[in-house]
Design a protein that fits this description.
Layout (H helix, E strand, L loop, with lengths): L1 H31 L27 H12 L1 H6 L1 H9 L10 H4 L12 E2 L14 E2 L9 E2 L16 E2 H16 L5 E4 L4 H15 L1 H7 L13 E5 L15 H9 L5 E5 L4 H4 L4 E7 L2 H10 L3 H4 L10
Parallel strand pairs: 1-2
Antiparallel strand pairs: 3-4, 5-6, 6-8, 7-8
Helix pairs in contact: 1-4, 7-8
The protein binds zinc ion (ZN).
Amino acid sequence: MKKRLVSGVAFALSLALFAGCSNDDQTQKDNTSHKTEKHEHEAHKKNEPTKKNEDKNTPSDENKKNGENKNNNGNVSQDPEPKKDQDKKKNEPGEPSQDQNKKPKPPAQKDDSVSVVAHPESIPVLVNKRSKLPENYKPADLVYPDVPFIFSEKTEKRMMRKAAADALETMFAAAEKEGIHLTGVSAYRSHATQTTLFNNYAKRDGYEKARTYSALPGTSEHETGLAIDVAGDGGKCPAQDCFGGTQESKWLAKHVSEFGFIIRYPEGKDSITGYKYEPWHIRFVGKSVAQKIMGKGETLEEYFNAVPVSNGK
Ligand SMILES: [Zn+2]
Protein backbone atom coordinates (compact mmCIF):
# COMPACT_ATOMS: atom_id res chain seq x y z
CA MET A 1 0.00 0.00 0.00
CA LYS A 2 2.63 2.36 1.08
CA LYS A 3 4.64 1.31 -1.82
CA ARG A 4 1.90 2.14 -4.16
CA LEU A 5 1.49 5.48 -2.62
CA VAL A 6 5.14 6.18 -2.98
CA SER A 7 5.28 5.17 -6.55
CA GLY A 8 2.16 7.17 -7.15
CA VAL A 9 3.83 10.21 -5.73
CA ALA A 10 6.96 9.54 -7.69
CA PHE A 11 4.93 9.28 -10.77
CA ALA A 12 3.03 12.41 -10.10
CA LEU A 13 6.34 14.11 -9.62
CA SER A 14 7.68 12.86 -12.86
CA LEU A 15 4.56 14.04 -14.55
CA ALA A 16 5.04 17.44 -13.10
CA LEU A 17 8.57 17.39 -14.34
CA PHE A 18 7.45 16.36 -17.69
CA ALA A 19 4.96 19.12 -17.88
CA GLY A 20 7.77 21.41 -16.85
CA CYS A 21 9.65 20.32 -19.89
CA SER A 22 6.96 21.22 -22.27
CA ASN A 23 6.50 24.51 -20.59
CA ASP A 24 10.12 25.12 -20.94
CA ASP A 25 9.88 24.47 -24.56
CA GLN A 26 7.08 26.86 -24.78
CA THR A 27 9.00 29.45 -22.92
CA GLN A 28 11.94 28.86 -25.05
CA LYS A 29 9.85 29.35 -28.06
CA ASP A 30 8.57 32.57 -26.70
CA ASN A 31 11.99 33.69 -25.82
CA THR A 32 13.32 32.92 -29.18
CA SER A 33 10.76 35.08 -30.61
CA HIS A 34 12.71 38.15 -30.47
CA LYS A 35 14.60 39.87 -33.00
CA THR A 36 15.25 41.45 -36.11
CA GLU A 37 15.20 44.01 -38.62
CA LYS A 38 12.91 45.93 -40.62
CA HIS A 39 13.47 44.93 -44.07
CA GLU A 40 13.94 41.55 -42.72
CA HIS A 41 11.83 39.54 -45.00
CA GLU A 42 8.35 38.51 -44.49
CA ALA A 43 7.54 35.79 -42.19
CA HIS A 44 5.48 32.82 -42.73
CA LYS A 45 4.79 29.81 -40.87
CA LYS A 46 3.93 26.40 -41.74
CA ASN A 47 5.15 23.20 -43.08
CA GLU A 48 7.98 21.17 -42.11
CA PRO A 49 11.59 21.42 -42.66
CA THR A 50 13.29 19.45 -45.15
CA LYS A 51 13.16 15.99 -46.14
CA LYS A 52 15.64 15.13 -48.63
CA ASN A 53 18.88 16.91 -48.54
CA GLU A 54 20.70 13.74 -48.47
CA ASP A 55 24.34 14.51 -48.69
CA LYS A 56 23.97 17.99 -49.81
CA ASN A 57 25.24 19.51 -46.66
CA THR A 58 22.23 20.87 -45.08
CA PRO A 59 19.39 20.68 -42.80
CA SER A 60 16.96 18.05 -43.71
CA ASP A 61 17.25 14.79 -42.08
CA GLU A 62 19.71 15.89 -39.58
CA ASN A 63 17.62 18.81 -38.78
CA LYS A 64 14.83 16.60 -38.16
CA LYS A 65 16.80 14.62 -35.75
CA ASN A 66 17.92 17.62 -33.92
CA GLY A 67 14.63 19.25 -33.98
CA GLU A 68 12.78 16.26 -32.81
CA ASN A 69 13.04 16.77 -29.11
CA LYS A 70 11.97 20.26 -29.34
CA ASN A 71 9.25 19.93 -31.81
CA ASN A 72 7.46 16.82 -31.02
CA ASN A 73 6.11 17.61 -27.68
CA GLY A 74 2.91 16.01 -28.58
CA ASN A 75 4.37 12.67 -29.19
CA VAL A 76 6.37 12.56 -26.10
CA SER A 77 3.61 13.51 -23.85
CA GLN A 78 1.71 10.49 -24.89
CA ASP A 79 3.82 8.23 -22.82
CA PRO A 80 3.23 9.27 -19.31
CA GLU A 81 -0.46 9.15 -19.49
CA PRO A 82 -1.14 5.52 -19.85
CA LYS A 83 1.32 4.89 -17.12
CA LYS A 84 -0.49 7.13 -14.79
CA ASP A 85 -3.58 5.14 -15.25
CA GLN A 86 -1.94 1.91 -14.57
CA ASP A 87 -0.45 3.18 -11.42
CA LYS A 88 -3.60 4.54 -10.12
CA LYS A 89 -5.76 1.65 -10.83
CA LYS A 90 -4.07 -1.59 -10.53
CA ASN A 91 -1.12 -2.88 -12.15
CA GLU A 92 -2.65 -4.72 -14.89
CA PRO A 93 0.30 -5.38 -16.98
CA GLY A 94 -0.11 -5.72 -20.62
CA GLU A 95 -3.50 -4.13 -20.63
CA PRO A 96 -3.28 -1.41 -23.19
CA SER A 97 -4.47 1.71 -21.65
CA GLN A 98 -7.66 2.99 -23.04
CA ASP A 99 -6.53 6.48 -22.71
CA GLN A 100 -4.71 6.07 -25.88
CA ASN A 101 -7.95 5.77 -27.71
CA LYS A 102 -9.60 8.57 -25.93
CA LYS A 103 -7.25 11.18 -27.03
CA PRO A 104 -6.56 11.60 -30.66
CA LYS A 105 -2.89 11.77 -31.28
CA PRO A 106 -1.77 15.32 -31.60
CA PRO A 107 -0.22 16.17 -34.89
CA ALA A 108 3.46 15.49 -34.87
CA GLN A 109 4.38 18.92 -36.08
CA LYS A 110 2.68 22.18 -35.74
CA ASP A 111 2.61 24.94 -38.22
CA ASP A 112 5.47 26.75 -36.68
CA SER A 113 7.80 23.85 -36.24
CA VAL A 114 11.38 24.70 -36.72
CA SER A 115 14.34 22.36 -36.96
CA VAL A 116 17.87 23.12 -35.97
CA VAL A 117 20.43 23.17 -38.74
CA ALA A 118 22.97 20.40 -38.35
CA HIS A 119 25.89 22.03 -40.15
CA PRO A 120 25.58 25.75 -39.71
CA GLU A 121 29.10 26.31 -41.01
CA SER A 122 28.36 24.72 -44.37
CA ILE A 123 28.59 27.33 -47.11
CA PRO A 124 25.31 26.48 -48.86
CA VAL A 125 23.52 25.97 -45.52
CA LEU A 126 19.77 26.37 -45.69
CA VAL A 127 18.43 28.74 -43.08
CA ASN A 128 14.82 29.76 -43.22
CA LYS A 129 11.74 29.92 -41.07
CA ARG A 130 11.76 26.19 -40.70
CA SER A 131 15.49 25.66 -40.33
CA LYS A 132 17.19 27.68 -37.69
CA LEU A 133 20.76 28.07 -36.62
CA PRO A 134 21.77 26.52 -33.29
CA GLU A 135 21.64 28.86 -30.33
CA ASN A 136 24.91 30.70 -29.88
CA TYR A 137 26.14 29.92 -33.35
CA LYS A 138 28.73 32.41 -34.41
CA PRO A 139 30.63 32.03 -37.65
CA ALA A 140 34.32 31.54 -36.88
CA ASP A 141 35.77 33.39 -39.84
CA LEU A 142 34.06 36.76 -39.96
CA VAL A 143 36.03 39.54 -41.61
CA TYR A 144 35.38 43.04 -42.91
CA PRO A 145 34.97 43.04 -46.67
CA ASP A 146 36.67 46.01 -48.25
CA VAL A 147 33.66 47.53 -49.96
CA PRO A 148 31.71 50.73 -49.39
CA PHE A 149 28.75 50.64 -47.02
CA ILE A 150 26.01 53.17 -46.52
CA PHE A 151 27.40 53.88 -43.05
CA SER A 152 30.92 54.47 -41.89
CA GLU A 153 31.11 52.75 -38.51
CA LYS A 154 33.06 49.57 -38.24
CA THR A 155 30.35 47.43 -36.74
CA GLU A 156 29.31 43.82 -37.04
CA LYS A 157 26.89 44.77 -39.81
CA ARG A 158 29.87 45.06 -42.12
CA MET A 159 31.17 41.61 -41.47
CA MET A 160 30.89 38.49 -43.57
CA ARG A 161 32.50 35.11 -43.57
CA LYS A 162 35.83 35.11 -45.34
CA ALA A 163 34.73 33.30 -48.51
CA ALA A 164 31.69 35.52 -48.89
CA ALA A 165 33.67 38.67 -48.18
CA ASP A 166 36.28 37.82 -50.81
CA ALA A 167 33.60 37.08 -53.37
CA LEU A 168 31.83 40.30 -52.51
CA GLU A 169 34.94 42.38 -53.05
CA THR A 170 35.52 40.75 -56.42
CA MET A 171 31.92 41.28 -57.42
CA PHE A 172 31.76 44.93 -56.38
CA ALA A 173 34.97 45.57 -58.31
CA ALA A 174 33.61 43.83 -61.40
CA ALA A 175 30.41 45.84 -61.19
CA GLU A 176 32.37 49.03 -60.80
CA LYS A 177 34.18 48.31 -64.05
CA GLU A 178 30.84 48.27 -65.79
CA GLY A 179 29.74 51.50 -64.23
CA ILE A 180 27.55 49.84 -61.60
CA HIS A 181 28.13 51.24 -58.14
CA LEU A 182 27.05 48.89 -55.41
CA THR A 183 26.94 49.70 -51.72
CA GLY A 184 26.62 47.45 -48.70
CA VAL A 185 23.63 48.03 -46.42
CA SER A 186 23.72 45.26 -43.87
CA ALA A 187 25.58 41.97 -43.71
CA TYR A 188 26.25 39.94 -40.57
CA ARG A 189 23.91 40.16 -37.64
CA SER A 190 24.60 38.36 -34.40
CA HIS A 191 22.01 36.30 -32.64
CA ALA A 192 21.94 38.87 -29.87
CA THR A 193 21.30 41.71 -32.29
CA GLN A 194 18.61 39.76 -34.02
CA THR A 195 17.00 39.00 -30.71
CA THR A 196 17.02 42.60 -29.62
CA LEU A 197 15.63 43.77 -32.91
CA PHE A 198 12.83 41.29 -32.90
CA ASN A 199 11.97 42.02 -29.31
CA ASN A 200 11.69 45.67 -30.09
CA TYR A 201 9.38 45.00 -32.98
CA ALA A 202 7.31 42.62 -30.93
CA LYS A 203 7.03 45.19 -28.19
CA ARG A 204 5.94 47.81 -30.59
CA ASP A 205 3.60 45.83 -32.84
CA GLY A 206 2.94 42.61 -30.99
CA TYR A 207 4.53 39.26 -31.61
CA GLU A 208 2.30 38.11 -34.44
CA LYS A 209 2.62 41.30 -36.37
CA ALA A 210 6.37 41.42 -35.84
CA ARG A 211 6.67 37.98 -37.33
CA THR A 212 5.22 39.15 -40.59
CA TYR A 213 8.14 41.40 -41.32
CA SER A 214 10.89 40.20 -39.07
CA ALA A 215 12.57 36.82 -38.75
CA LEU A 216 12.77 35.00 -35.46
CA PRO A 217 16.27 34.87 -34.03
CA GLY A 218 18.20 31.99 -35.51
CA THR A 219 16.18 32.01 -38.69
CA SER A 220 17.70 35.05 -40.33
CA GLU A 221 20.24 34.43 -43.03
CA HIS A 222 22.11 37.45 -41.83
CA GLU A 223 23.20 35.38 -38.85
CA THR A 224 25.13 33.05 -41.13
CA GLY A 225 27.55 35.78 -42.20
CA LEU A 226 26.85 34.69 -45.77
CA ALA A 227 24.16 37.19 -46.70
CA ILE A 228 24.19 40.89 -47.37
CA ASP A 229 21.70 43.51 -48.40
CA VAL A 230 22.99 45.84 -51.04
CA ALA A 231 21.90 49.13 -52.49
CA GLY A 232 22.79 51.23 -55.48
CA ASP A 233 24.96 54.25 -55.77
CA GLY A 234 24.86 56.43 -52.70
CA GLY A 235 22.73 53.89 -50.87
CA LYS A 236 19.55 54.57 -52.79
CA CYS A 237 16.64 52.38 -51.78
CA PRO A 238 18.46 50.44 -49.07
CA ALA A 239 16.62 47.17 -48.60
CA GLN A 240 13.54 48.66 -50.12
CA ASP A 241 11.27 47.61 -52.94
CA CYS A 242 12.34 50.55 -55.06
CA PHE A 243 15.71 48.85 -55.49
CA GLY A 244 13.99 46.43 -57.84
CA GLY A 245 14.22 47.55 -61.44
CA THR A 246 17.28 49.73 -60.88
CA GLN A 247 20.29 49.09 -63.06
CA GLU A 248 22.14 47.76 -60.03
CA SER A 249 19.38 45.31 -59.34
CA LYS A 250 19.38 44.15 -62.94
CA TRP A 251 23.13 43.78 -62.95
CA LEU A 252 22.98 41.68 -59.81
CA ALA A 253 20.28 39.40 -61.14
CA LYS A 254 22.39 38.78 -64.18
CA HIS A 255 25.80 38.41 -62.61
CA VAL A 256 25.64 37.41 -58.95
CA SER A 257 26.01 33.73 -59.60
CA GLU A 258 29.32 34.27 -61.36
CA PHE A 259 30.65 35.26 -57.97
CA GLY A 260 28.91 32.56 -55.97
CA PHE A 261 25.88 34.55 -54.85
CA ILE A 262 22.18 34.08 -55.47
CA ILE A 263 19.20 36.38 -55.25
CA ARG A 264 17.89 34.53 -52.26
CA TYR A 265 14.24 35.61 -52.39
CA PRO A 266 13.24 35.77 -56.04
CA GLU A 267 10.03 37.16 -57.33
CA GLY A 268 7.08 34.80 -57.23
CA LYS A 269 8.70 32.31 -54.88
CA ASP A 270 7.19 33.54 -51.65
CA SER A 271 5.47 30.29 -50.96
CA ILE A 272 8.76 28.44 -51.15
CA THR A 273 11.18 30.80 -49.46
CA GLY A 274 8.71 32.35 -47.05
CA TYR A 275 9.71 35.83 -48.14
CA LYS A 276 8.47 38.24 -50.66
CA TYR A 277 10.78 39.36 -53.45
CA GLU A 278 13.92 40.97 -52.12
CA PRO A 279 16.12 42.01 -55.00
CA TRP A 280 18.65 43.47 -52.56
CA HIS A 281 19.29 40.42 -50.41
CA ILE A 282 22.05 38.30 -51.85
CA ARG A 283 23.42 35.17 -50.33
CA PHE A 284 26.75 33.48 -50.87
CA VAL A 285 26.41 29.74 -51.56
CA GLY A 286 29.54 29.08 -53.63
CA LYS A 287 29.89 29.28 -57.39
CA SER A 288 28.68 25.93 -58.55
CA VAL A 289 25.59 25.91 -56.36
CA ALA A 290 24.86 29.52 -57.27
CA GLN A 291 25.08 28.80 -60.96
CA LYS A 292 22.77 25.84 -60.70
CA ILE A 293 20.21 27.78 -58.74
CA MET A 294 20.30 30.98 -60.77
CA GLY A 295 20.56 29.05 -64.02
CA LYS A 296 17.25 27.38 -63.33
CA GLY A 297 15.61 30.33 -61.68
CA GLU A 298 15.26 28.34 -58.51
CA THR A 299 15.60 28.85 -54.81
CA LEU A 300 17.87 27.35 -52.21
CA GLU A 301 14.91 25.43 -50.85
CA GLU A 302 14.34 23.85 -54.25
CA TYR A 303 18.00 23.05 -54.62
CA PHE A 304 17.86 21.08 -51.41
CA ASN A 305 14.44 19.66 -52.09
CA ALA A 306 13.40 21.16 -48.83
CA VAL A 307 9.78 21.40 -47.90
CA PRO A 308 8.62 24.85 -48.93
CA VAL A 309 8.34 27.34 -46.15
CA SER A 310 5.03 28.34 -47.56
CA ASN A 311 3.57 31.70 -46.95
CA GLY A 312 0.90 30.77 -44.53
CA LYS A 313 -0.11 34.31 -44.03
ZN1 LIG B 1 18.49 40.79 -45.94
